[in-house]
Amino acid sequence: MSTTLEAPSASSATEQFLKQQHKLLINGDWVEAASGKRFDVINPASEDVIATVAEGDSEDVQRAVAAARKAFDTGPWSRTTPSERGKLLWKLGDLLEQHMEEFAEIEALDNGKPKAAALGGDVTLAIDMFRYMAGWATKIEGNTMSLSVPYMPGEEFHSYTLQEPVGVVGQIIPWNFPLLMAAWKLAPALAAGCTIVLKVAEETPMSAIRLGQLIQEVGFPPGVVNIITGYGETAGAALSAHPDVDKIAFTGSTEVGKLIVKAAGETNLKKITLELGGKSPNIILPDADIEQAIPGAANAIFFNHGQCCCAGSRLFVHKKQFDRVVEGISEAASQIRVGPGMHPDTDMGPMVSQIQHNRVCGYLESGLEEGARAVVGGKKTGDRGYFIEPTVLVDTQKDMKVIREEIFGPVVAAVPFDDLDELVDSANDTQYGLAAAVWTRDISLGHKIARRLKAGTVWVNCYNVFDSSLPFGGYKQSGWGREMGYEAIRNYTQTKAVTVHL
Ligand code: NAP
Ligand code: MG
Question: Cα(2)–Cα(33) distance, rounded to whole angstroms?
């Protein structure tokens, strides 16, 4: 498919929304940035400006944190019952469901992903996340303990723990799943009773702004959710260094994750959870069902244009199957229709931005210069928009940048292996540990390898399976803490032990 194909226009609801004067959500009001500055939002398929948004910075972050603090300490939110919090979250899921098409179009125009993928993936999962966390709001429980206190013989105590909300939370999210990352962050924090300042990615602010409108409509009290559009170096850094923010939850690059840890260390030692990069191994064992593993491996890397922290970017294939798998995944790559996210025939959209496009092209050039070979793809495509050909690399070496570093694009390196122990060592030979997969008919062996892989998620005979109940996060430099599931709730609560002398 040609990347110059004109995409159909969006629905009038989406067009109307994009035309609005977009502002920051602070203390229940939409306000301009204190500086009065604004910036353009670009459609990465056409390079057209689709909207402008307020450029929030340090001063706006101060205002938003003050609003969140007041809402947490003394506002109506501090007296809202768990059941009421659950109801509000459920209502938000319902409202989002009523606007699914609009959100899918916003993501297609702002991020570049195919509208159908946004509808079936991002938006559907975001709705589910609000509903799933709505259920947890009423089920956050402490324990009771039977004390012995050996140095106070004969005395009796009653001890119990409370799980209390952490407080004011700063949430900083990336551009690869803009609405879904907002949902993953907001839903557990709200279920736990926290208040929030959400800093969305500069590349993709639109769906969070629309979500903010729905949050208003649902009736969350002022200051509970504040939304800042702006840059990481200013707004994001101000949030990370703010002395009255109790926790930062961040998703993005390992490099920025380290800056956030540093900022917290230099200020108030706020709590931190991080969901960072990956270089995930996807392993096809000699006994695997190749007909299942080949499309599985293609999905592992090409889903969301490879802009996934858990992308299966290192494909390890047993020597016996290597040629056949490389041929199969290359065939799958060549059949991917690359085009604008709004076009119904598009399988893969553009990279999110010019910067990301240049970054991926840089990796391709470096890999090819160092001796890797592109069986298919290997360069940019189209005369406008940030498109890249789906690429399969072979003949890589373990010290090449394309093997060591996260590319965050539709580029997979296929690597042959012979020996199972060496394979596990190679799979674990990375600073990252976000996800991994193994394809085999020997389920017992699949379980054994799953235990040996140093990753927060291991898929066996599948890839990219996500569920609101499944904790997701990284080993090693892929992060701290987990998103989704009850573990996410625990990240937004802290334990208080209360002891009563009877
Ligand atoms: P990034 O720079 O880490 O951005 C993620 C978020 O952090 C954005 O909201 C960003 O703001 C903000 N940020 C940037 N600098 C900051 C700072 N000094 N203090 C506080 N917040 C800051 O990631 P990116 O530039 O979007 O992409 C670069 C790489 O990050 C990717 O290639 C990939 O390796 C990784 N990444 C990982 C994920 C994931 O899901 N784990 C998602 C996206 C990207 P801006 O809006 O101004 O950028
Ligand atoms: Mg950036």
Answer: 40
